Amino acid sequence: MMDGKSAEKKIAKLRERIERHDRLYYIDNNPKISDAAYDELLRELEDLEEAFPDLAADDSPTKRVGAPPRSSLPPAVHLMPMLSLDSTTSADEARAFDERLRKALERDRVAYTAEPKFDGLSLELVYENGLLIRAATRGDGTTGEDVTPNVRTIRSVPLHLQGAPAPSLMSVRGEALLPLAGFRELNRRMTERGEPGFANPRNAAAGALRQLDSRITASRPLKFFAYEIMKIEGAPAPASHAGELAALTGHGFLIDYHWKECAGIEEAIDFHARLAEAREALPFEIDGVVIKADSKRDRAAVGARSRSPRWALALKFEPRREITDVEDIAVGVGRTGKLTPVALLKPVDVGGVTVSRATLHNARDLERKDVRPGDRVRIERAGDVIPAVVERIEVAGQKRSEPFSMPEQCPVCGSPVEAEGANHYCTGGLSCPAQLKRGIMHFASKGAFDIEGLGEKTIESMVDLEIIGSVADLFRLEEERLLELEGFAGKSADNLLEAIERSKEIALSRFIYALGIRNVGEHVAGLLALHYGSLDAVAAASADELTGIHEIGPEVAASVTGFFSNERNRKTVDDLLAQGVAPRPPERTAADLPLTGKTFVFTGSLEGITRGEAKGRVQALGGRVSSSVSAKTDYVVAGSDPGSKYEKAVRLGVTVLSIDEFLALLPEE
Ligand code: IVH
Q: Ligand 1 atom closest to Cα of 119?
């Protein structure tokens, strides 16, 4: 057996050799040894690290195989905000961008770098003293998800920076993506296992990276292209983008070679046109060109807006189009209950991705394009958006089928469908399985049942594991089933059950809001509770009665009556009550309030009370405050220096109150 000292030396040597071959293979595309010889080196290193666990290191090539699964992806705050890019498909807009920069920089020429816009997942990699310490997804730009163990498995990501000296801190931004060959292979394997497969390489890359188990990430041949140094300390910052790309290469990153220094915008536009042609032959997806001011000084001079830098522009490619036949039209139901007609297509390859479905957005779109089963259509796929039907193509002499019309019943739950503008909605609400997760989320939210500890993740797994199939099931939950969920132990399960029990005591207004009736937000729910005082009375109200309530229009009224006339919804409500949910009527209903039905307008400066207070007092007493005077106004409260509202009140014969008279009208607080 080797002693510690010589093991250390041997390990260092092996790591160096493996790294060199990694670089030759994954970065330089110029392998020098056979796969078998490489595997042998790796195995030797693994054995040694196993025998001398003290000598293991986070940046050892053996760490590329992935780590044991984690329970969640923790949040990671970025060192620098990860901005997004302005984008266009028009060369003229690129010229306008150039003009803005030239004007801001007071020069007649700005030098740019143009490079591919990679269609993958943007990542921030942080290196401390040369060591990769964190990798995070973009998230909301400020905070992303920590995917470090996963990113360590990507061979083109250096685990430690090459070339001396290493900066003390460096944040690198780039794109992780799955090359097309890897994507097709992955989808083939998934299809064989009966799994649906990914719609495009971008989703596949995101799926591979957002794994809890980094061994799965390791099994997918991801690549990482670096394109920006976001922050650098303890080493000189390159003065230009070209210099930065050279520095990144020196540190061991993979840079795509399709990039060009452009003396002006026309060269960049030209580069875009040439790359559009080269695109089809590329082994990975790009969706345009990013044009960036090359000089760091220019960048600093023009700065950034809140979401995107002023010094860069994405000049995207036109979406890819293809022609195929519609085999049928299906209707999908989204999480909001919105019905979407989808054309089921004869599968067609659109720029390397097989497309067999394309959206028709809504009934109006469907009608305008007049697409019917059997028709020939042009479809379009732009980046990662769902393919869409662009237009129908006339086929001479073809006999067409009947026009397609939207179903009257929800294809998922059978509830009546309601048209609203261009869209159609299922009225099943809480009782429609397609809307279940979202419905429960809303049900448990702050303004509704406010169930502490019942978050999105928990709800999703509960529905997926069929622990709950309706909101009423929440009140039938058993501890045993809760313990099946990730992250639930005895204590947290008890806490959740208690929170659910506590929530049964609920104000009527919150209960109504929790039902998720379309167009019924917290405010309207409050009005309904106040006006009717009981759930039965709300459920029995006619549309006519409802529109009689101030602030309730015909749309809201139709949603309310629609909801309660749906058998499934009534059953759900009954079930909730049967589980012991007890909506508490408001202490006072509208009829008891002194100012119900009265409309107030304030004008001039009020003494002794602010506008906001005055308004609040009136509303709390059931009255309404309007900003303009009409014959329907009951009172105009005039302070000093009243304006035209006062004159109008006098003209219309509306009662005018002084501020003292107004205050006298209000009961003591
Ligand atoms: S630069 C502040 N360069 O495109 C600098 N972004 O649509 C912003 N992207 O979120 C990024 N290729 O994820 C830059 N060569 C490239 C890029 C690129 C792809 C992504 C990036 C960004 C998105 C904006």
A: 19
Cα–Cα distance, 326 to 344 (Å, whole number): 6
Q: Report the predicted TM-score, pTM, of the whole model to 2 decimal places.
A: 0.60
Measured from the Cα of 85, ligand 1's closest atom is 24
Distance CA 53, CA 59 (A): 14
What tokens does 165 get? 């000296």
Atom of ligand 1 nearest to the CA of 314: 7
User: DSSP assignment, residue 27?
Assistant: I
Q: Structural domains in the chain?
A: 4-56 (1.10.287.610), 87-316 (3.30.470.30), 320-427 (2.40.50.140), 429-503 (1.10.150.20), 507-590 (1.10.150.20), 595-665 (3.40.50.10190)
Q: Give the ranges where 435-507 is alpha helix by DSSP (H).
A: 436-444, 456-464, 479-482, 490-503
Query: DSSP letters along 225-279, please?
Result: EEEEEEEEESSPPPSBHHHHHHHHHHTT----S--EEESSHHHHHHHHHHHHHHG
Q: By the 8 A CB rule, do 420 and 409 touch?
A: no
What is residue 575's predicted lDDT score, i.e. its pLDDT?
96
Q: Ligand 1 pocket test: which of 85, 279, 306 has the largest number of ligand atoms within 8 Å of its C-beta?
A: 85
Judged by phi (left if over 0) then psi (alpha if -120 to 50, else beta), residue 81 lies in: beta
Cα–chain center distance at 604: 46
Smallest CA separation from ligand 1 atom 16, residue:
117
Which residue, 595, 593, 604, 614, is CA-closest to 656? 604
List the residue whose alpha carbon is closest to atom 15 of ligand 1: 117
The two structure tokens encoding residue 634: 């009951």
504 tagged catalytic: no
What's the confidence (pLDDT) of residue 518? 86
Q: Are strands 312-316 and 87-88 parallel, antiparallel or unpaired?
A: parallel
pLDDT < 70 stretches in the chain? 1, 352, 383-385, 589-591, 668-669
Q: What is the DSSP letter of 426?
A: E
* Ligand 1 center to 117 CA (angstroms): 6
Give the per-residue pLDDT at 190: 82
Expressed in angstroms and rounded, the spacing between residue 77 Cα and the centre of ligand 1 is: 19
Tokens of 396: 């001479």
Residue-wise pLDDT tens digits, 430-459: 778 889 988 999 999 988 999 999 988 899
Give how far the C-alpha of residue 656 lies from the chain's centroid of Cα atoms, to the nearest Å: 52
Residue with CA at minimum distance from ligand 1 atom 12: 117
State the residue for tokens 């007092």.
617
78, 88, 115, 117, best to mutate for ligand 1 pocket (most atoms within 8 Å of CB): 117
Residue 114 CA to ligand 1 centre (angstroms): 12
Alpha carbons within 13 angstroms on the beta-carbon side of residue 317 total: 28
Beta-bridge mates of residue 126 = 134, 171
Q: What is the rounded end-to-end Cα distance, in angstroms, of the chain?
A: 88
Pick the catalytic residue: 10, 13, 117, 399? 117
CA 629 from centre of chain: 44
Q: State the distance from the centre of ligand 1 to the C-alpha of 80, rounded, in angstroms.
A: 14
Q: What share of the chain is helix, strand, coil (3-state, %, to 5)?
A: 40, 25, 40
How is residue 354 written in tokens?
Answer: 């097989």
Task: Give the residue from 475, 515, 523, 516 showing the smallest Cα distance to 496.
Answer: 475
Residue 339 bridge partners (DSSP) = 333
Q: Which residues line ligand 1 (CB under 6 A)?
A: 83-85, 87, 115, 117-118, 122, 175, 227-228, 290, 309, 312, 314
Which residue(s) pair with 425 in the sheet? 338, 418
Euclidean distance between CA atoms 159 and 18, whole angstroms: 12
Amino acid at position 498, single letter: E
